Amino acid sequence: MVAKVIGIIDYGMGNLLSVYHAVNAVGAHAKICQNPEDLNAVDHIILPGVGAFSQCIRTLHEKGFVEALNESVIQKGKVILGICLGMQVMARTSHEGGNHTGLGWFDAEVVKLAPSEKALRVPHVGWNKVTYTKDSRLFSGVSTSVADFYFVHSYHMKCAMQDDVLATCNYGEDITVAVKKDNIFAVQFHPEKSQDIGLKVIENFIKLD
Amino acid sequence: MLKRRLIPKLLIKSKVFGRVSRLVLVTTHQYSDTIEVGDPVSQAKIYQAQMADELILLDLDASDGLREEFVAMLRKAAEEIFMPITVGGGIKTVEDFRVLLSNGADKISINTAAVEDPEFIRQVSDIYGAQCVVVSIDYRTNDEGESSVWINGGKVKTDWTPLAWAIEAERRGAGEILLTSIDRDGTSSGLDVELARTIAENVSIPVILSGGCGLSSHFIDGFQQANAAAVAAGTFFCFKDQNPMQTRAHIKNANIQIRLQS
């Protein structure tokens, strides 16, 4: 079987290298996409992201990725995984540093974490347990009893449609940490930084049709 | 439930063999007396196998700024390390951040540059997000019990107290504090939990506590008494007949939330 080609969108921010190596580690072929037309030649797409929302969405627009993503994902139905900020930009709007419009693939807003307990710090950094609220092929083979994934974020996505929510994690309250809508998947944690269990999620994503 | 973190700290220096220079892993004692203990990338892989929660890589020979060979080593480590990596040592510019983040780093630890130009914290925090800016605070405590922040690898004293500087660093956009007692570094005499607790009570960002771990119980002290989000150790994991898995089991037995296995 020919290895699937997974396009990783490079918009000049954050750590792409780990995602790149993680994709190759589970047997697919990672391809860094610096230009919108690169998306034509890939099977699945990963939208990673570290940094500030406004800068991320602005760069995606400037480089022409917004149109290319809408064409590949919405019109052609390519499977995509957003990671961390790459999940948040799929929301309708974000309140990080003012109000900013996102890709709008999920009817959701991105808001700052505000845990009521003082002991819970922001950013939410570290390994936290993820609970899957419904069966998902993305979490297939990941035992719920040891599902600790690595998080590092200050903002989180709040979905208007409960059906979009795939997984949650408790940080003072239950926060949405994985979403799905048709061919669109996104996670708030970093699978590429979550050791074996994270590689399993990436492997599951690659296997999706 | 968010787990407390166990972070091996890899201290790195250059060693010259004739005309060849290579990077080696070292331990330090009060920021001097370095002892060579192995190869950084091999050791990082061992820590990955032993389920460390994160790694900190610090270049001790970076007084003139970020070094190419250090970036090359990071790039090599990132090929096989699938856990968060914080790097530090000689980082002074936005370009240093860009280079490190595009070569496998997740978080960048800044120290001297932040004290010399506190606005640098805001600058990189605005571009890359607070979550990737770790402000590293090294301090010494005198006989009167007064603590001061030291920079340039513990060589230059500043007017900041660790508490005031931690509060200021948070205000300017730091995402985490890495707090290290130089006096305790490499001594295995236990963490300075008193000051760490005061700082943890006065900032809302996570505090990584470091300097002095010699026993598993020292980690437990760091979590229970200082309320540290993470404890980092270099010498402890390098020399003791201890590894992150065994230490983790001891911590778990003290009823502290920690990751056990995946």
Question: What's the quick description here?
Answer:
The complex is a heterodimer of chains A (209) and B (262). In chain A, 23% of the residues lie in helices and 34% in strands.
Overall pLDDT confidence of chain B = 94
Termini of chain B, distance in Å? 16 Å
| Helix content estimate of chain A | 10-25%
| Sheet having the most strands of chain B | 8 strands, parallel, barrel
CATH hierarchy class name of chain B = Alpha Beta
Name given to the CATH homologous superfamily of chain A: Class I glutamine amidotransferase (GATase) domain
CATH topology heading of chain B? TIM Barrel
How much strand of chain B? 25-35%
What is the C-level CATH assignment of chain A?
Alpha Beta
Which stretches of chain B are low in confidence, meaning pLDDT under 50 for 5 or more residues running? none
CATH-derived architecture of chain A: 3-Layer(aba) Sandwich
Rg for CA atoms of chain A: 16 Å
The count of strands of chain B amounts to 12
CATH superfamily of chain B: Aldolase class I
Q: What is the H/E string of chain B?
A: EEEHEHEHEHHEEEHEHEHEHH
Large-scale geometry of chain A: globular
CATH topology term of chain A:
Rossmann fold
